[in-house]
Amino acid sequence: MDTKLTKLLNITYPLFQGGMAWISDARLAAAVSIAGGAGIIAAGGRDANYVREQIRLAKQLTNKPFGVNVQLMADNKDEIIEVICEEKPTFVTLGAGNPIPYFEKFSKAGILKIPVVPNAKLAKRVEDSGADALVIEGMEAGGHIGVLTTMALMTQVIPLVTIPVIVGGGIADGRGMAAALVMGAAGVQLGTRFLVAEECGVHPHVKAALLAAGDTDTVVTGLVGGHGVRCLKNTFSEKYLVMERIGVSQGELDKLATGTNRLAAIEGDVVNGAVLAGQSLLPLKQVEPANVIVERIISEVKQILLDAPGMVK
Amino acid sequence: MDTKLTKLLNITYPLFQGGMAWISDARLAAAVSIAGGAGIIAAGGRDANYVREQIRLAKQLTNKPFGVNVQLMADNKDEIIEVICEEKPTFVTLGAGNPIPYFEKFSKAGILKIPVVPNAKLAKRVEDSGADALVIEGMEAGGHIGVLTTMALMTQVIPLVTIPVIVGGGIADGRGMAAALVMGAAGVQLGTRFLVAEECGVHPHVKAALLAAGDTDTVVTGLVGGHGVRCLKNTFSEKYLVMERIGVSQGELDKLATGTNRLAAIEGDVVNGAVLAGQSLLPLKQVEPANVIVERIISEVKQILLDAPGMVK
Q1: Which of A9, B7, B117, B139 is least surrounded by Cβ atoms within 10 Å, i.e. has the fewest?
Q2: Cβ-count burial of B301 within 10 angstroms (0-12 exposed, 13-18 middle, 19+ buried)?
Q3: pTM (2 decimals)?
């Protein structure tokens, strides 16, 4: 399955495991890369030493390409970018801030630059500034989200750029991946789907909560303030939404949210923690190895695309 | 292009023009049906006489199948349903309320029942209750919206039911239609795309505003109260959002919104009226006949699906 993305990264399948703060580490990233996709270590919420250690560990686990996700709003972003440039993963994905000022530094280190962009205008801008590929992620995704959906982004961004476009948000099976490819995407990114991978280190309570959840079980906190975060409905998110609705200050809301990602992901408190998750939860049926997830998706895609001409008989 | 939907309705292409209150009338619906899709007359905001007159007019304009969209929250819904059962369009789409109590009445009149459903559970329920097909519409659509996106709905609803599924929301070109078909949809529904059809009677100021708008130019009013409506950013929507944010009562918000659909669609006030529109606005380039829009989309779909096996070489 050759696309502009498989050629750019020298990977077998155009399928990223999305970077998930506090969760996606060397073990998960390496498992996805070994399976033929490209795993991503999340730097969000971590210190530079952790990032160095995880890149080194992933290189011990596999010689396949993998990436690191950097949140550009993080206070320690410069330190983390320094470490990444020293340790040289194949690529970085760059979100939550303007990625362009960092392009030159990554290029000099030989690292491919793949920003996450929220709309058509910024897609053009990062392409013109030398991005090697870009990610568009619809608001059906888990965690920090924008306002455009996956379908709206695919419709409007893909025709505007020539660099490979990777699509994330709501894609959880081979049908979604096939849909993205026929729209002209060069690849897809799945986050939530890999939360129930065997190699994913998220707390087992989180895996159990995700397996029990359905299509209507997420909400978006922070919409009013323009910083939406999609997570499971639970005591934490309901409390946040009530406080938001009655007009509590952003400072108080931030205080309420601080530490809640870690509380769910690491401590396993799925009641008072923020369980970040996308809308497409029904396809999550069981915990299974990353390579089983990848192989099932790819075999679905192949079958669907081979059958496609039958639709226009 | 045969799908379960083309067979059910005896139409050439599995493509609906979505019902748009105050806008989609016999002229637009007939134009889309003559082009090989299926047009839909919107009953929303209208009285029963208007609906009767429009169904009769559409039957004069074409002998092809067309439908009527009924908003089940309307005060005069019973009267409108009575008229529809007398005048017998091929099908109805049913939104904004529980459609099941009306199924028997429509069945007796020989009218196909196609409810719009917001999630997987209700999709199963309408299928079990005898719906002939169903529409899923993502929150990237214009007008009244739910919370799930097109990708999340396609991923989770299509595998659950055996009746034809029609997908709307954010689809504006042949790529989007091809994507829906490869996901297993039996057809698509486009609303905003047909607002710039020559045969669409919406005010020319609305057409001009839509042609000038891009991917980030819509907002959702009424999210806080759980009744989201997607429309263009303008003086009306900005005012509504500010009032919503400062916690004004639902009664006052409703008063602010009353008459604003008509004000934009009929009077052409695109500053103080509500210009309902979906997120995928960049593909709208010019006003052109409905059959040109339909033919371009269908020819794109055919090309894409015939090329698809090349992606898995």
Answers
A1: B7
A2: buried
A3: 0.97
Identify the CA nearest to A135 among candidates A156, A157, A159, A160. Answer: A157
- Write the DSSP string, B33-68: HHTTSB-EEE-TT--HHHHHHHHHHHHHH-SS--EE
Q: Is the pLDDT of residue B162 over 90?
A: yes
Is the pLDDT at B151 greater than 90, yes or no? yes
Residue from the list A169, A280, A304 with its beta carbon closest to the beta carbon of B182: A304
Cβ proximity of B40 and B46 under 8 Å: no
ipTM attached to this prediction: 0.97
* Average of per-residue pLDDT values in chain A: 96
Q: Is A266 on the interface with B (CB under 8 A)?
A: no
A38 touches chain B (CB under 8 A): no
Which residues between 92 and 121 in chain B have a beta carbon less than 8 angstroms from any beta carbon of chain A? 119-121
Residues 6+ apart with CB under 8 A from A155: A183, B170, B171, B172, B173, B175, B176, B280, B282, B283
Give SS3 for B252: helix
Domain with CATH 3.20.20.70 in chain B: 4-201+283-304
CB contact under 8 A, B282 and A175: no
A279 closest CB neighbour out of B148, B245, B279: B148
CA pair distance A112, B82, nearest whole angstrom: 63
Q: Nearest CA to CA, how far is B155 from chain A (Å)?
A: 7
Measured between CA atoms, the residue of chain B closest to residue A174 is B183
pLDDT bracket for residue B247 (50, 70, 90): confident
**Which two tokens mark A275?**
């369980």
**Every domain range in chain A assigned CATH 3.20.20.70:** 4-201+284-312
Give the torsion sign (CA, A27, A29, A30, A34). Answer: positive
Q: What percent of chain A has pLDDT over 70?
A: 100
- Give A16-28 pLDDT, tens digit per residue: 999 999 999 999 9
d(CA B145, CA B147): 7
Confidence of residue A313 (pLDDT cuts 50, 70, 90): low
pLDDT at position A210: 98
- Confidence band of B163 (pLDDT split at 50, 70, 90): very high
Task: Give the C-alpha distances (Å, rounded to integers) separating B164 from A137, B2, B157.
Answer: 28, 12, 11
Inter-chain contact A173–B184, Cβ cutoff 8 Å?
A: no
Q: How far is B100 from chain A (nearest CA, A)?
A: 21
Q: Tell me whether B149 touches chain A (CB under 8 Å).
A: yes
Is B270 an interface residue toward A (CB < 8 Å)?
no
B312: which residues sit within 8 A by CB, 6+ positions away?
Answer: A1, A301, A302, A305, A306
pLDDT tens digits for range A150-193: 999 999 999 999 999 999 999 999 999 999 999 999 999 999 99
* pLDDT at position A223: 85
H-type helices in chain B, by residue range? 4-9, 26-34, 48-61, 77-87, 103-108, 120-128, 150-157, 174-182, 192-195, 204-212, 235-245, 250-257, 260-265, 290-307
At the fourth CATH level, the homologous superfamily of domain B4-201+283-304 is: Aldolase class I (3.20.20.70)
Query: Which of A148, A172, A184 faces B155 most closely, judged by CB atoms?
Result: A172
